[in-house]
Fold this protein.
Amino acid sequence: MPDILRRVSNTPKKQWTLFTFGIILLLLALQLPGLQHAFLADDFDWVTNARHAVSSDNWFQPFTVETGGHFYRPIVALGFEIDYAISGLHPLAYHIDQLAFHILLVLGVALLVWQLTKSRKLAFTVSLLFAVFPNQHEVVTWLAGRPDLYAATFGVWSVGLCVYFVKSNRWWAYTISIILSALAMLSKEIAFVLPVLILAACIASSKENLKKTALRSAWAFPWVALLGFVLLARNHILNTPLGGYVSGGQAQTTQFSFGNISQIFLSGFNVFNWSYLSEILNHNIWYRAAFSVWTFFTDYWLVFVLLAIAGLFWYGKRTSQTRKRFLLFSITWIIVSFIPVFGLADEISLTRLVASRLFFFAAIGYALLFALLLTPRKTYKSASRKILWSAYIMVVLICLSLWKINFIPWKTAAQDVSMVTQNLKTQQLQDNSPILFKNLPQLVHGAYAFFGKHAVRGVVYEVTGNDNPNVFLNNDQPYTSSPACSCSDPKLQIFQWSSQNESLIKETAFSKKWNAAAKSCTDTTIARWDFSHAEDRAVWNVIDLNSAIGSDGLLLTIPKKSNGALQYTGLSLLGAEARNLTITFEVVSTHQPVYTTNLAWGDADSLPANQQIAFSFSQNSDIRVSIPLCQYMNWAGTENISKLRIRPMSGATIILKTIALQ
């Protein structure tokens, strides 16, 4: 340990000290406004699990069970437990934890670059640029993004210390590096690529030729063994080594596409929250011009990739050996970091920064690359050096501005959750009665508020102390315990959030109608249409689909990417009155691996975006789709349904036979 302190002091100690304090002050200034933010979305799930573990004095429970969503991230869960023990349900300690790890990560990036290049200037410029990279809020501001933050912090320090070991032969650094890698792998699956990154870093920092370096890399075996041990532990806990990820895809399927490849390139430039910018600058000519450029960039990304490759090749031929190795290492980091999340790249929004946490680890590689290209060498002419330094400063200032802009939706989301909580405290809630919340803010320009079920359950617990509240959102996720399926008087309370008045309104009259409808449970068919009968076909409009009359139904050709559907207008229905929708049809031809029926509903004038269901079902030639409408609270919670729009499936030719509402 004294050796590394001596090495740091030999590089002017004052520079490192000033840089460290500067980073602390910078990140504190950037994140200070968010230190009191309320919990958001999945934050409540982590905090609830931490509360249960701490209350039962079972701190190490996360090492023996899965985390929600079929994941295994015990180090993150342990971090939440420590935060809960310190501040309970107050978010301050959680955000300070997040800030501390962000500071450590930025300093770890500086350590890594210094070990690779022995250039303090490059170390400082890379880490500063990464510190202000403006698409990090989903990891740094949102507490539930902590798995990425922990994995990246432990991983970067592990790589940096391993490079130091290779150069100095200090075994304490080797040991700590392995321990940090283990912590990273137990934080998030993204860290499974660490053995490759560590090997690439050591090759990049070596002055020997590639063959000799590779022959001396037997010391990397413990990382491979460590990865194998972690995968075995995950297999024991989750019954599968990868859990919620399958080569980057979700557990149920792996979605690889050519478009996914584009995200490897586009993610480094995906720093604008266009959704929010359009709200405040929609009529600004400069905004529209910038968005047009971004759209052109994303449409023709492959052309820009080829140009970038040519430019990097030209740069590599004209730079020093050290910078050339560093360039290759930066590119390797970007590509390798995307492997675990490659199949999820379609989840990344190019307009709202949704799922931007997926490329947080890769953003380190982009910071390495951008700073390398913008940091001039001593051999450059004075004019060139001034131009590059000016460009670097401009990029940092732009990133700082975008950081502040991209923070605003998260601030708004936190304020929304706080307002809903305060409003709920003024309501009289009946003990153990189910509660339906309508129109709660879910996504605020990409920032998660009441997205998913955890947030509303956490808020109700905070207000009532009920650890198992029976609460529902009017969204398109099915609830098997839905009170609409109970065939009894559930005594449901309905609250609607008014964003205009910023108030929670109790819908007493609607609640009475709803409970009466839910109580009258019968198997009566409300409406049934047989498409072999001309009079039944006539009341349904075929919209943007090719159709023909068959002997036993209506022949429909439905393209794969079609918005076409059948539409019926003439109902007068309370959602809770209809519990099932049954559709029968025969599949003539299809190449679709997954069958999905789409249903939308509304009044005579509109089909709101939040009144839709996508229902997947098993494959067969003769199909009877039965959608349990009562499980979908966006259906059950609709007060007036007069219009239905149905697409039985997509990418197929079918013979539609019957549709029935029960």
